């Protein structure tokens, strides 16, 4: 969600404007698109304009998927251009609200960390871990940044390892250990005036960046389109020509699971499921200049949703609710 392309390689202001225009065309994706636009504005140096976008989202009459995330991003941005008091007030509010999503916790903790509030950052990461990581539960990948960030800040403070630090070490799979990665001397060496120290640290960072880029170089997931029962009923009542594609909702769900298993069996990596809605599908058809009753449009729609980051990885992790939305875990539902 947060673009990190250097400013010399992209016109961040133009990209932000393009994303704002796109948000007008796809209101259902406006939150994601405007957050990306705000990130580009931050990278362009126009932080007040980014704050304006965050305020636009927070003041929207449409409900946000994650208002705590928007507030956290706003706080981080405000602090960067001198509005420390307002940023601190927002951060205190987020911590008091205790959101159940790790994203806002990580952003506000890192904002504190970047302004040398290491004790407060460690407390924030610990609050998040205590809230989001019940005992004897294997953390999902979304929670890893909480543990890694907590490990990093505690390492900077010189605190001894505890059980959560050990868990972070276990989850970390890079050839470079977390203890080495979070070594305070490495951070300090980046501010050194000694060319030899800087060169050695840059070489290490390049090696780590290569590993990171390899992880990000995977293509968009091969995504299969899923229609919840109410959406499929509306789709078929509005566009009966698509009935041949979806004889029944039960058969639709069975086809999704069998298709994904067949793809997995053939060695296709990075599989996912995207969930469609009729308004979104109609908007996509309009953007393609064709009718929604054209069945060949369905896989294109699925690919587009996946490219916008809307895909859920398949198969679900152990203990996670089944992708079909029935409420049972995958293992006893479609994964049985």
Reported CATH architecture of the largest domain = Alpha Horseshoe
CATH class of the largest domain: Mainly Alpha
| Number of E-state strands | 3
Strand order of the largest sheet: 1-2-3
Distance linking N and C termini: 34 Å
- Rounded to the nearest angstrom, the radius of gyration is 23 Å
Major sheet: 3 strands, mixed
CATH topology of the largest domain: Serine Threonine Protein Phosphatase 5, Tetratricopeptide repeat
Order of helices and strands: HHHHHHHHHHHHEHHEHHE
Q: How does the overall form come out from the CA principal axes?
A: globular
Q: Helical region count?
A: 16
Strand content: under 5%
The count of domains is 3
The portion of residues assigned to helices is 55-70%
The H-level CATH homologous superfamily of the largest domain, spelled out, is Tetratricopeptide repeat domain
Q: What do these coordinates show?
A:
The chain is mostly helical. The protein has 3 domains: 7-188, Serine Threonine Protein Phosphatase 5, Tetratricopeptide repeat, CATH 1.25.40; 189-217, no CATH class; 222-332, no CATH class. 60% of the residues lie in helices and 4% in strands. It has helices at 12-25, 30-44, 47-58, 67-80, 84-97, 102-114, 118-132, 144-157, 163-171, 178-181, 184-189, 195-216, 229-238, 249-265, 278-287, 297-307; strands at residues 222-226, 271-275, 312-313. It has a 3-stranded mixed beta sheet with strand order 1-2-3, with helices on both faces. Helix 3 packs antiparallel against helix 4 and helix 8 crosses helix 9 (163-171). The chain is globular.
């Amino acid at each position: 969600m947060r673009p990190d392309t250097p400013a010399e390689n992209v016109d961040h202001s133009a990209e932000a404007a393009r994303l704002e225009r796109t948000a007008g065309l796809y209101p259902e994706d406006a939150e994601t698109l405007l957050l990306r636009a705000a990130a580009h504005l931050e990278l362009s140096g126009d932080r007040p304009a980014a704050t304006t976008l965050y305020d636009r989202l927070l003041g929207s009459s449409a409900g946000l998927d994650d208002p705590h995330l928007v507030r956290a991003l706003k706080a981080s941005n405000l602090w960067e251009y001198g509005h420390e008091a307002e940023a601190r007030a927002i951060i205190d509010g987020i911590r008091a609200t205790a959101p159940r999503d790790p994203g806002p916790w990580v952003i506000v903790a890192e904002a504190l960390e970047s302004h040398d509030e290491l004790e407060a950052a460690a407390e924030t990461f610990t609050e998040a871990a205590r809230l989001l990581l019940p005992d004897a539960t294997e953390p999902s990948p979304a929670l890893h940044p909480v543990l890694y960030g907590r490990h990093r800040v505690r390492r900077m403070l010189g605190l001894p390892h505890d059980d959560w630090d050990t868990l972070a070490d276990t989850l970390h799979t890079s050839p470079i250990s977390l203890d080495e990665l979070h070594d305070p001397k490495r951070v300090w060496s980046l501010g050194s005036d000694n060319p030899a120290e800087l060169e050695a640290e840059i070489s290490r960072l390049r090696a780590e960046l290569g590993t990171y880029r390899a992880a990000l170089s995977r293509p968009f997931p091969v995504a299969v389109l899923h229609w919840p029962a109410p959406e499929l009923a509306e789709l078929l009542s509005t566009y009966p020509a698509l009935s041949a594609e979806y004889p029944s909702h039960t058969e639709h769900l069975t086809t999704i699971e069998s298709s994904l298993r067949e793809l997995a069996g053939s060695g296709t990596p990075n599989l996912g499921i995207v969930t469609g809605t009729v308004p979104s599908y109609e908007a996509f058809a309009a953007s393609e200049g064709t009718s929604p009753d054209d069945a060949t449009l369905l896989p294109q729609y699925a690919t587009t949703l996946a490219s916008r980051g809307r895909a859920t990885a398949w198969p679900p992790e152990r203990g996670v609710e089944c992708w079909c939305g029935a409420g049972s875990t995958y293992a006893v539902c479609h994964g049985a």
